[in-house]
Design goal:
The chain is an all-alpha fold and 90 residues long. The chain has one domain. It is built from 4 helices and no strands. The longest helix has 20 residues. The radius of gyration is 13 Å and the shape is globular.
Length: 90
C-alpha cells in the first residue's frame, strides 16, 4: 500500500483515539507512539519495521487500557481504533 493511503488511515486512527475513554496517561503514551510512526511514514525512506513495531505497541496499549472498561461504548470505539491500526499495518 502506498504511504499516502497509510497516512489517511492514520488520520482516521487519530480521530478514533480522541473518541476513546482512556486515562490521560494512556492516551498520551498511545499518541506518542502513533506520532512516532507517522513521522516514520513521512520520512523519505520510511522504515516499515519500526512502523510495525510502534503500531503493534499502540495496539497492545489500546487492548490493555480498554480491557478493564465495562462500557460497551468504550469497547466499540477501541475496536474501531484497533481495526484502523491493523489496516495501517497491512
Amino acid at each position: 500500500m502506498m504511504v499516502r493511503g497509510r497516512k489517511r488511515r492514520f488520520a482516521f486512527f487519530s480521530k478514533s483515539l480522541n473518541d476513546l475513554d482512556l486515562e490521560s496517561e494512556d492516551k498520551d503514551e498511545v499518541r506518542s507512539d502513533a506520532n512516532a510512526a507517522l513521522i516514520q511514514l513521512e520520512s523519505p525512506k520510511p522504515k516499515m519495521g519500526i512502523i510495525r513495531s510502534l503500531l503493534a505497541s499502540v495496539r497492545e496499549k489500546l487492548i490493555t487500557a480498554v480491557a478493564g472498561k465495562a462500557s460497551t461504548y468504550g469497547v466499540d470505539k477501541a475496536q474501531e481504533a484497533i481495526q484502523s491500526i491493523d489496516l495501517v499495518q497491512n
